[in-house]
Structures are given as C-alpha cells and as structure tokens.
Prior knowledge:
Layout: E1 2-3, E2 20-21, H1 24-30, E3 31-33, E4 51-54, E5 63-66, H2 81-89, H3 91-136, H4 140-160, H5 171-197, H6 200-207, H7 210-220, H8 227-245, H9 252-275, H10 284-307, H11 311-322, H12 325-352, H13 355-377, H14 383-416
Antiparallel strand pairs: 1-2, 3-4, 4-5
Helix pairs in contact: 3-12, 3-13, 4-5, 4-10, 4-12, 5-9, 5-10, 6-9, 6-13, 7-9, 8-14, 13-14
Amino acid sequence: xxxxxxxxxxxxxxxxxxRTCQQPTRLSALLVTNPKPFNHRHPLGLSxxxxxxIRDVSAKPLLSLTNPESSSGFSRKPRSIAAVGxxxxxxxxxxxxxxxxxxxxxxxxxxxGIVFGLWYFQNIVFNIFNKKALNVFPYPWLLASxxxxxxxxxxxxxxxxxxxxxxxxxxxxxxxxxxxxxxxTIGHISACVSFSKVAVSFTHVIKSAEPVFSxxxxxxxxxxxxxxxxxxxxxxxxxxxxxxxxxxSFNLGGLSGAMISNVGFVLRNIYSKRSLQSFKEIDGLNLYxxxxxxxxxxxxPVAIFVEGSHWVPGYHKAIASVGTPSTFYFWxxxxxxxxxxxxxxxxxxxxxxxxxxxxVGNTMKRxxxxxxxxxxxxxxxRPLNALGSAIAIFGTFLYSQATAKKKKxxxxxxxxx
Length: 417
C-alpha cells in the first residue's frame, strides 16, 4: 500500500485533504505530467518532474504534488504550491507585476530628483538674496528673525488649512525640543553674522568643517570612531585653513561666525538624537516647523536688545541705497521664504534617502552654492583659495563615506548580538 501524506499546512487554499491510494496501478493511471520539459539544471544532475497532478475520476478535488524529489530525500524543503502555480500558470500576471515595480521605481527616482533639484535651487536663491539684503542692511539679527518668522507663518498656514497634518504637541515634546531649538538658533544667527561680514563662498567653505566638530563633540560624549573617520577630517582642516589664509574678504568676525554656526548645528543634531528618540511619530517637516517657532521666540527678543536701536536708520539707508522700497522688500521676503523652503526640501529628501546619500548630496550642494554665488557677486578667487576649498569639500565627502561604513559595522554587530 502506497500512502501519500500531503500536509494541509503547506497551502490550505489548494490542498483540501489527504487521500490514500491502495492500488499502485490506479495511481500511475491518474498521474498527469506537466507538458513543460524537465529541468536539466538540477544540482544532482537529475531531471525531476516539476509538477505532478492527481486527477480524481470521481470528481473529487484536484490535488497538486509539488517537488516530488523531496520524497526521495533530495530536498527536504518543498516549494510553495502557490508560488509554483503562479509562476507556471500566470506568466502574464508576473510580467505585469514587474512592469508595475519598474514604473514605481522610476516615479520614485523622478520624485527624488525633483526634491533634490528644489533643494539646490532654493538654497541658491536664499544665499543670493540673503547676501543682497545684508549688503544694504547689515543687521543680521533682524534678518535672521524675519526668516524664522516667515517659516513659522508658513507652517501655521499649512496646519490651519489642513494642507499638512498638524503634529500632536505635548508638554514632554516641548521640553525635549527646547535644547535643539536653542542650538538651531545659535547656528542660524551665527551663519547670518558670517554672511554679513564675508563672501558667501567663504562662509560655506568654513561650514564644510562641520564634521570636524561632530567627531570631536561626539567623542567627548562617549562615542568612538574608527581611524578612517579621524583621517577623513584631516583634509577638511587643511583645506579650510588654506582657504581662510588666502581669502580676499577675510574677516575675523565672519570666520568666528561660521565656526560658531558649525558648533550650534552639531550640538543641535547631537541633542536631537538624545532628547527626541521617543517622538519618532513626528516627521521631519513638522519637527523643523516646531523648531522654527521656538527659535523665533528665542531670537527676536535678543535681536531687539543687540541691534534694535539701529534698525530705523539702517532701513532708511537701505532704501536710499536700493532706490525703491519694493526692491528691498522683495529681497528680504525671498530670503525668508526660501530659507524655510530649502530646509523643508532637505528634510523631505532625508525622509526618502539614506543618511549617506543625503551627506553626499549636501556636499555637492555646497559646491553648487559656492560656484553660483561667486558667479553672481563676482568675488575674486585666488588659485590657492580654490584649491583649499576643493580639499575641504573633498574631505567632507571622505567623512561621509567613512561614517557610513561605521554605521554598517554597528548594524551588523547589533544583528549578531
């Protein structure tokens, strides 16, 4: 007596029950082979029958016996009946699924390309009109406050008209956000002070040294980095030093402003990782909107104290310099709107791509901004200054590669543990 024990757990939808055949001759008469040719690429050199079907003459349910070599001990992991059926009987369906996946990938790539393009374009526009406004109105504290104000109004409009889901604000979230918002304020106002004193290109070269501060502060707080990461920051230091020494518009206030900006943004990132881990339900765009509002509350009172007495006479000088008030308003408005938009696009890009891709994209963004501002403002660039800038930016690229490898090793270690 031959017993076929077909477990219903393999595929309950196709395998209805177990039957026992008592006459071998009857079983052989009921076997219907698949017309497809044998598979000659079997690892043992055999030619197994891909699919055997048992057809019951008494109108019983159809049974499917897949991977018959398992009964001979050649394979102890039978293939899924559903998978074999779908691959053999529905080739058109599989082809349509592949086409749909390709279309989805193309659409996602196109969407990501648009986000990157907007990110770069908005950053260039911000840097150009921010510098134009600062050239005629050299009061960065007020201008930085207005930029945060524009971003806050933008987010409030999105939330009020339900154009974007409003985050659930709680007291613990506000408390956790106070530190990152403070360091964001320091980073933003310091960068604006630097922009007001030196060329935009020089500020961005110095800001490319942000990884140096990130490694130093993270190490002081207990993180460890491999030798490759420490070696990658050497060209950043060398390049920034060479660019600073050969900069035509060098100013100590501009240099210190860019350096303080690096410290502020690095501490913001570190503090955010430590204090906002339990609020992952809030996406990047909403998080940045909340940071903008709190940063405005931090900055504006200090701005009034630092330079508030100079705003009125400075405004009249700016209007006299530009000629028409509408032009000056246009510059200030664009600097505020595009400051928020380029940060918004950067957060959207970070939600869609890996941190490594984002770091590389951010490095290339600095290159594009430096070249664009040099062309617009026609800043004189010495060969050694250009060389130092290139070395510093290349160092940031090496740093992003080294830190990505460090993260992969950490993830692999966590999986093994």
